[in-house]
DNA sequence: GAGAGTACGCACTTTGAAGTAAGGTACTCA
DNA sequence: TGAGTACCTTACTTCAAAGTGCGTACTCTC
């Protein structure tokens, strides 16, 4: 590995400190990069989906965590909830515009992780 | 918000299930999206750095977590450690090629988070 | 010779994210 | 009448991630 490799370009914003502790960005980053947050955002990036569908897509999530994650993302304005007053209840979840912006950045990251996971985790050098 | 918004393109890889529970990708995703993992990778994307410099950049990290995070990332082959046998000790950390690939995807995500955090967290609609 | 800097390792404690379990409503279907 | 579906809520528990604090071995400065 060459030590003179070119550093990735970084916006001026955090040249010299990543970003400060206790500021809103840390909170938002925590929501976005949380275990289930990522999976829900990725799932929704394929389009509007219902509760039970999300449960299946995000394999292993409990109902409590699904509700909690959706609520957090909704409060952050990344996910919108559309409840129709029909019986049985029908609720559709989808990404807002900001949510799409985010997922557009998240998807390549997750894809990379997916592609490199086996090589890295199993056959670690 | 228009329900007919165009879904983001998603690689075939996980059309129909995000990805399975208990597979290596979940583990790697956890490492990469962990609270301190992100910050360290972002900090290192600006180039090789020493222990104490990383401590300052990732504001709020404890020595224990710094050591632990670096060790995890090193085992995953994302960070390389270069210890020089001088006194006082001098250890430089940098990204491997895989680490650079990752950080190239991570940086825009963090930048977006940084730009939108205040609007989202403070003035939530 | 007292204190600070450098790069950790180890043990103990705390916190909070996540899991488990159960209940509730307003229906439909057999 | 009883089971099942869809969409949750609340309460209790657990466990791993993270924090705290101390020790080391050496050197350089005040």
Structure, explained:
The structure is a homodimer of 125-residue chains. With 125 residues, chain A is mainly α. Helices cover 52% and strands 11% of the residues of chain A. Chain A contains five helices and three strands. In chain A, a hairpin with a 5-residue loop joins strand 2 and strand 3. The longest helix of chain A has 26 residues. Chain A is globular and about 50 Å long. Chain A binds a DNA duplex (30 and 30 nucleotides) through helix 4.
Explain briefly what this protein structure is.
Chain A has 125 residues and is mostly helical. Helices cover 52% and strands 11% of the residues of chain A.
The SSE string of chain A, one letter per element, is: HHEHHEEH
* Class computed from helices, strands and strand pairing of chain A: mainly alpha
Mean pLDDT of chain A: 84
Taking pLDDT < 50 over at least 5 consecutive residues as the criterion, the unreliable ranges of chain A are 1-13
Number of strands of chain A: 3
Quick one: which chains have the greatest interface? A-B, 77 and 77 residues
Overall 3D form of chain A:
globular
> Looking at the chains present, what oligomeric state does this protein adopt?
homodimer
Number of helices of chain A: 5
Strand residue content of chain A = 5-15%
Please state the CA-atom Rg of chain A, rounded to the nearest Å: 18 Å
For the biggest β-sheet of chain A, the strand order reads 1-3-2
